[in-house]
# Entry
Amino acid sequence: MLKVLKRIVQDVATATHLSEALMILVHRVRQAVNADAVSVYLIDNKHADYVLVATEGLNPAAQSHVRIDLNSGLVGLIGRREEPIHIENASSHPDYHHNPLLKEDHLKAFLGVPIIQHRKLFGVITVQQAEERCFDDAEESFLITLAAQLGGIIAHSEATGELAELTQVKPFGHEKAEPVNMILTGIGCVPGVGIGTVVVVYPPADIEAVPRMQVSPDELEQEIQLFLDALAVVREDIDRLKKRMKVMVAEEEHSLFDVYLRILDRDSLGHEVIELIRTESLNAQAALAAVIRKHVMQFENMDDDYLRERASDFRDLGRRVLAELQRAQPQELTYPKRTILVGDEIPASALAEVPQGQLVGIVSAKGANNSHVAILGRALGVATVMGVSGLKIDQLNDRAMIVDGFLGHVYLYPSRALLGEFKKLAQEEQDLNQSLVSLRDKPAETLDNYRVSLQVNTGLALDTSLSMSVGAEGVGLYRSEVPFMTRDRFPSEDEQTIIYRQILKAFAPRSVTMRTLDIGGDKILPYFPMKEDNPYLGWRGIRVTLDHPDVFLIQIRAMIRASEGLDNLRIMLPMVTNLSEVDEATVLIEQAVHELIEEQCMIQKPKIGVMVEVPAAAFLARDLAKKVDFLSVGSNDLTQYLLAVDRNNARVAGLYDSFHPALLQLLLKIVEGGHAAGIEVSICGEMASDPLAVIVLIAMGFDILSMNACSLPRVKWVIRNMTLANARRILGQVMEMQHADEIRYHLKTALEDEGLGGLIRAGKT
# Structure
């Protein structure tokens, strides 16, 4: 039954449209459980009823026309109870509702299960038989499992608008309705409105992400030759590997290389791809991807375990050929004046490629509020929506789009009226930002004269003038990994020195806190492979650089050289969990200082700090503070690790909450630990840019708040319109609360009581 289930799910998932997928499902389920009728009812939210959208065994004319009230019939009962129901004779049940259009009078046995995804009820699957009997546990479990799989597909179709189209009212004789407006929903990560033209970013060598692109008849032979050249290069690579491995593996394993070479033969894989290029006028990449996907699916559907494993071999060979094709056909992107980057997963380097001032929106299928790209989008002040369901990426390039970073909505094919509304909203946002310009040269000081230092986070496409224009008092976090991520090799010491000198000089005499190379997790260098099953709990941050002291020393030397004559550098160590890591890093930093002094560099030893982003470091704050000059909380990762929530996972994004009582208690402990040792404590995570969080952060005693430049004026406005005494009173109240929602509501009310409600409404905080 498990094999049957897997095949049904695969067939349903490969269907082009939801209606097609559901018809495949009812047909295959009817065969699997030997039923007389299988049906799917989905909820029409607009009219609050169930719609029969697919059936095999009931009256075909009933499809799309039978509608059942949410509180009526056996289908309604299943939905209300949100659990399976099986009945020996359906017509004898008190909730049975007779609908003559269904023509189900001869059917007795009934089994129905709800379709639920992320706690939301989407519909019901029913199975019926003429025989009067109870369905057994195996049949019920089969249907429950299938409904769980189907829930994801239906949730996806809801995001694309296909579900609404399928369930809308259709008069007899008018089966094809006009398509509905497409509104996609995700997580609003950076507030603001982006109105522009889509540029799709495809990941390199990803078979699943290759768009279906056609070429003119005149270009077919050129595409075939490009493919054959790529095939020849990969064959040479495999042949080279075969010779190298001959003395290292047994003959049986070594024979696999001969299999690979046969697959890569012009008369095997080559013939299929060339045939597809000619018959469907596809470009080489699209034809290759289609052939590889077909073979992968065939192998994955096989019963034999050994043969199923060969799917990964086909996938790997396909990627190798695709990578070679992409090298031969580099993607030349042109960027409109108002560019919206869209992708399944957008790398930081893609943001850096867009000419300055032309990026107005970011939309990604993967990621969440505090994933790395969202943080960079926030730094640039670009409307960003992550975790968007229903992105049909290959259909979006050059399309008009509106990105609503406030509510997490993405609008395709916007009408003139809709464009007009969003242009007004964008103007209101711009007016608010303009009204805060006057605060630039004023200190971040409360009404009772408590001073806080506001600094900026930088790293990507640094715009020094923006940071200065909002009155930044320095750099609280410089992400040094970004220059590493935008290259195809490790930058040399001289190259790094030039980069670091620019930032240090731009902000002098203000301090600049440079975090040492922090890779791992969602920050991967293309030339430094770090494949791990669980990268967030693996080799990252200080763990990598201490294992590679050569890389660490080159970076430290470059940072210190860059500070010569400026002396405004502070060095921060990421992902620290043990005191010994600080000791080891300090020894290397002192080594670099001594080396540079011996080389006649006029430098001073910079202040050294620790980034507190792991619970272990938070609980060791008092001990760490005795070894360093400052502590800086990275609230993004600290929240992630404390709450065991992957901040890039849209599915659990709702559990990631900076106002969780446990996090607030831990933040207070960190500040107390640092101040007990007489050192400065800052916070440089995204929490520092939230006007609500600022109330509790200044009350806790954080000395520095570091954030993206676009958020700084609003945070300063909050600070200048509050008293420290009142902030401490509010902190005392929220520390007694047990739920994050309760804390957030209390803080919103507090801001409104202070007359700062306009800021909340304008920023949709």
The chain has a mean pLDDT of 85. The radius of gyration is 30 Å. Residues 542 and 581 are 8 Å apart (CA to CA).
